[in-house]
Amino acid sequence: MAFVLASNNPGKLREFEQLFTKLGFEVVPQAQFGVEDADETGLSFIENALIKARHASERTNQPAMADDSGIVVPALKGAPGIYSARYSGKGDAANNEKLLRALEGIEGAGRSAFYVAVIALVKHANDPMPVIAEGRWHGRIAKSQVGEGGFGYDPLFIPDGFKITAAQMTPDDKQALSHRAQALKALAPKLNGLQ
């Protein structure tokens, strides 16, 4: 059984392919079908993941999956949240600077944060029983950007149990611990019986 991945991100495709190949499923990027990205109009990670999965399924007439992810800072009422990728409107570096400004003067537990990844899988565009899996990676926001690896908020995110940012971790360590890795692990047992 094959699933269309509602993303044109090569990193996401690699992560999904690794898990799904082991489970006997094939993952095909939506770009192979000429499918454009869906408008993310939901108010939650779950809604946006479902919007993207249903959009890809409708355009391809195939089962599809999507993820929506971001970073949540409780002291900022959940911001950047679902707007993480477009928080500043000017890319990763500007997003990080905006988050640092928003947390100026906030210390200790007020700097706690977590990454969220939600994966939605639909067998068809109108599937009333989508498969949903979630992963969270808890940590805190550093006071400055450190590290060259990763992307997004990784230079600011210090995972619980670590003294380095996600951008300083090896790719293998990050991939094993990340919110997306946790969501994929949660998804795996839910795939039994789908073929």
From TrEMBL:
Gene3D superfamilies, per the entry? 3.90.950.10
Catalytic site positions: 68 (proton acceptor)
Q: Which InterPro entries match?
A: dITP/XTP_pyrophosphatase, ITPase-like_fam, RdgB/HAM1
Q: Does the keyword Magnesium apply?
A: yes
Q: Which residues bind substrate?
A: 7-12, 69, 151-154, 174, 179-180
Keyword field contains Ribosomal protein: no
Q: Which domain of life is it from?
A: Bacteria
Question: Which Pfam families would you find in this protein's record?
Answer: Ham1p_like
Q: Which residues bind Mg(2+)?
A: 39, 68
- Write the Enzyme Commission number(s) for this entry: 3.6.1.66
Q: Which cofactor does it need?
A: Mg(2+)
Q: What does this protein do?
A: Pyrophosphatase that catalyzes the hydrolysis of nucleoside triphosphates to their monophosphate derivatives, with a high preference for the non-canonical purine nucleotides XTP (xanthosine triphosphate), dITP (deoxyinosine triphosphate) and ITP. Seems to function as a house-cleaning enzyme that removes non-canonical purine nucleotides from the nucleotide pool, thus preventing their incorporation into DNA/RNA and avoiding chromosomal lesions.
Q: Which NCBIfam families match?
A: RdgB/HAM1 family non-canonical purine NTP pyrophosphatase
Subunit field text: Homodimer.
Q: Which family does it belong to?
A: Belongs to the HAM1 NTPase family.
The name this protein goes by in its record: dITP/XTP pyrophosphatase
What are the top taxonomic ranks of the organism?
Bacteria, Pseudomonadati, Pseudomonadota, Gammaproteobacteria, Cellvibrionales
